[in-house]
Amino acid sequence: MEATADVVVNASRLCFVDPFGMALLGATFHTIRNQGRSVQICGLSAEMGGYLERMDVFEGIELVDCAPMPMQRHNRGDSLVELTRLGARRDVDEASFRLAHAVVGHIPGINPDEPPDEMTGYTAFERLVEPVQYALNELLENALTHAKGHGFPDACVWVASQYYPRKGMIQLAVVDDGCGFLASLRNHPALRRESHIDAIFTALMPRISCNRDLGLSSESVNQGVGLTTTFRIAEQAGGRLVIASGDAIHDTVGRSYQLTEDNFWQGVAVAMECRRDRLPDIRFRDLLPPLDAQPVRRLRFE
Ligand SMILES: Nc1ncnc2c1ncn2[C@@H]1O[C@H](COP(=O)(O)OP(=O)(O)O)[C@@H](O)[C@H]1O
Ligand SMILES: [Mg+2]
User: Which residue owns the Cα nearest ligand 1 atom 24?
Assistant: First the structure.
């Protein structure tokens, strides 16, 4: 990222990439190409090349000495979603609907085409999709609103997902190249220290929003509960969030640390992992912070 010349990536030791890695790679390649520099990848195995090409990671990238193994493009809509770049809020609903349906896929005993429940109007399948769709919607909205502030109006967001049948895990990645948590929350009174790791922790707290002066609205947008609820959904489904921003990385079930040397992510990168078979256990509406936890607002009559 720092260099000014064209980039040649030696990928000969690459043997595994998950959606998080793919979204980070895709965003990085995009930035480099936008600076008018070219990207070449060499030494990639045919199998890795086939998979990454199948996932659309190589837009505008030159592969050197690699003949990607052809992979079938069809019939995978129930287990993966190719790397997709979004730039505008109007694309969010459609993308989160498509991604959520893809990752929920086929759960044994649940028929996506069953008629809806007479009273609620929802099918069992839709109730499973709902929490994943909510999480995606929140992460994408954040990336296309907050991330565009503080001098990053052209920020984009990359999403990708994959279902891993052996572990039964879903991984979703939402990566933006915007201002990052610290720039967004720098003046928030809840931020204890001006560091990227503290900014990640602060953003995860319920009712923390950079738009705290906008008042209450019926939408969850700008109520400061999006990230908190997304984390609770992952946790209830036996999973976690991994969040990187600036020089910090936080794993909600593992270590949080500052990245060393020059490692830095300009923006916010979130991976959400959960067990697909635990989605039916999620009591989605119970996870939203209660409405009475909203801050008291003083009424002024002058
Ligand atoms: N992608 C992002 N880029 C920059 N800042 C972000 C991003 N996502 C979240 N934030 C920061 O974290 C805060 C909390 O996010 P969230 O819980 O979704 O609440 P809300 O979006 O309602 O403000 C946001 O107000 C914003 O300051
Ligand atoms: Mg939000």
Answer: 209
Q: Is the dihedral of CA 211, 216, 221, 227 positive or negative?
A: positive
| DSSP letter for each residue of 22-54 | HHHHHHHHHHHHHTT--EEEES--HHHHHHHHH
9 pLDDT more than 70: yes
H helix intervals, the chain:
19-34, 46-54, 92-104, 124-144, 180-185, 196-204, 226-236, 284-287
Report the length, in residues, of the chain. 302
**Domains along the sequence of the chain with CATH:** 1-74 (3.30.750.24), 75-289 (3.30.565.10)
Which ligand has the shortest distance to the CA of 178? 1
pTM of the full predicted structure? 0.89
In a mutational test of the pocket of ligand 1, which residue from 146, 204, 272 has the highest number of ligand atoms less than 8 Å from its CB? 146
Nearest bound ligand to CA 223? 1
pLDDT tens for each residue of 34-52:
999 999 999 999 999 998 9
pLDDT for residue 301: 63
Q: Position 101: which residue type?
A: H
Mutational test site, ligand 1, from 148, 187, 227, 245, max ligand atoms within 8 Å of CB: 227
Protein residues near ligand 2, an ion, with CB under 5 A: 142, 226
